[in-house]
Amino acid sequence: MTKKFADVVVSGGGVAGLAAAVAFGSSGFDVLCVDPSPMGTNQKDPNADLRTTAYLQPAKKFLEQIGIWQLVQGESAALNVMRITDASGNEPQSYDFCASDISDEPFGWNVGNWIMRQALLDRISNLPNVTFLSGVSTNRILRRTSSALVGFSDGSSVEARLLIAADGRNSFVREAAGIEVARTDFGQMAITFAVTHPLPHNNVSTEVHRTGGPFTLVPLPDHQGKPCSAVVWMESNANVETLMGLDVEEFNAAATERSANILGPLENVSRRMPWPIISQLANRFYAERTALIAEAAHVVPPIGAQGLNMSLMDVQTLMELALQNQNGLGSPDQLKAYQSKRFNDVKLRHAGVGILNKTSMISIPAVQRLRAAGLQNLHAISPLRKAAMRLGLGAS
Ligand SMILES: Cc1cc2nc3c(=O)[nH]c(=O)nc-3n(C[C@H](O)[C@H](O)[C@H](O)COP(=O)(O)OP(=O)(O)OC[C@H]3O[C@@H](n4cnc5c(N)ncnc54)[C@H](O)[C@@H]3O)c2cc1C
């Protein structure tokens, strides 16, 4: 690599890291982003991340601002209603939370991660001040008062005013900075896959609760003329192992049964991918010349579409602080301001999602009845229902 200096080095090119590179690049900063893993931007690529992400209103607005939303909106599906179905009793009970109660817009829009990655890479290729290096990892860091000297697996190094750690839950940058994490392992995994179904989803995202964790169907655009949804199926580790071993017909039957048959028989039309479910929070989000974002800073179970949405809020906050004082990029004051704007909001959401996940795993009937009663009350009391929806969208 010929580059010796950069305003910003982004370690990690997941969706969050690439979004950070685009955000700083479109604001005029000189950026280098590196990632060791294959990008997998085609759905058929075995390396592709086939998860989908529900981008909530604030995330969509930010992606519009940095020129990304325009590239993916044609491949997104709107989420107008969040339906929570309690299937622990004899008759499933459903409660609808409608975006129209609090807004003129849908709650969010669902987009495949591989599509978002491709859009981000396309945008980067049009930003001459952003360099993205695939197949390269960060492996050395020397922090100084005025800059960070960041070393890479290709033997090169770059001096940057700000190092952004977007290198995931096992972040090298975070560990090198000596920042500790609190971690909870739920003994749970999520299987993600796409299904077609005979009944239309009508832009309703449905979480079906019973035991083991939620089974969530999130609308996608039609697949080969049939209604299609992305599924996140959370279960105990042992059950996931069994489910992953089922043949296609057995798996379709199990998924249909677990969905309480709300959209009719489900047909799996993508690879099934297992993801370990943990909750993790770094004890601070910065070190000298370094900011932690996304899963390097916080990991939550995939409930309520919070993970990547919080990550984009991290990126937006860092970018706004940098634009307020460009000379102070990466300075102690700027990083402390980042910590104070993000840490408490993330901590609150992190705790809330952890509680929701534990509640959804419950298998004791009496406690399941309490869960159902709580949900019924939350839904019935209009101000409470609207406040919960606003909180879910990102209002603190
Ligand atoms: C099943 C599931 C469903 C989800 N659904 C949603 C949803 O609907 N809405 C939502 O908001 N969130 C969702 N999330 C959360 C969301 O996917 C994560 O928040 C998001 O992927 C975090 O991205 P990241 O960039 O931090 O991590 P990653 O995607 O893991 O990216 C980290 C990158 O860092 C790279 N890297 C690792 N080590 C190094 C190194 N030394 N140097 C440089 N690079 C390195 C890796 O190769 C990787 O590409 C979901 C999560 C799961 C598990």
Give structural notes.
With 396 residues, the chain is an alpha+beta fold. The protein has 2 domains: 5-54 and 115-183 and 279-357, FAD/NAD(P)-binding domain (3-Layer(bba) Sandwich); 73-110 and 185-277 and 360-393, D-Amino Acid Oxidase, Chain A, domain 2, CATH 3.30.9.10. 36% of the residues lie in helices and 31% in strands. The chain binds flavin-adenine dinucleotide.
Keywords:
396 residues, FAD/NAD(P)-binding domain, nine-stranded mixed sheet, 12 helices, 20 strands, binds flavin-adenine dinucleotide
Quick recap:
With 396 residues, the chain is α+β, with helices and mostly antiparallel strands. 36% of the residues lie in helices and 31% in strands. The chain has helices at 15-26, 57-65, 69-72, 113-125, 172-176, 237-244, 248-258, 294-297, 307-324, 332-361, 365-380, 382-393, and strands at 5-11, 31-35, 52-56, 77-79, 81-86, 93-98, 108-112, 130-134, 138-143, 148-152, 157-165, 181-196, 204-209, 215-223, 226-236, 267-268, 273-282, 286-287, 290-292, 298-299.
Q: Can you lay out the helices and strands and say which pair or pack?
A:
Elements: E1 5-11, H1 15-26, E2 31-35, E3 52-56, H2 57-65, H3 69-72, E4 77-79, E5 81-86, E6 93-98, E7 108-112, H4 113-125, E8 130-134, E9 138-143, E10 148-152, E11 157-165, H5 172-176, E12 181-196, E13 204-209, E14 215-223, E15 226-236, H6 237-244, H7 248-258, E16 267-268, E17 273-282, E18 286-287, E19 290-292, H8 294-297, E20 298-299, H9 307-324, H10 332-361, H11 365-380, H12 382-393
Parallel strand pairs: 1-2, 1-11, 2-8, 5-13, 11-19
Antiparallel strand pairs: 3-7, 4-7, 5-6, 9-10, 10-11, 12-15, 12-16, 12-17, 13-14, 14-15, 17-20, 18-19
Helix pairs in contact: 1-4, 1-9, 9-10
The structure holds flavin-adenine dinucleotide.
Residues 11-17, 34-37, 51, 53-54, 137-138, 166-168, 172, 190, 192, 232, 275, 294-295, 302, 305-309, 311 line the site of flavin-adenine dinucleotide.
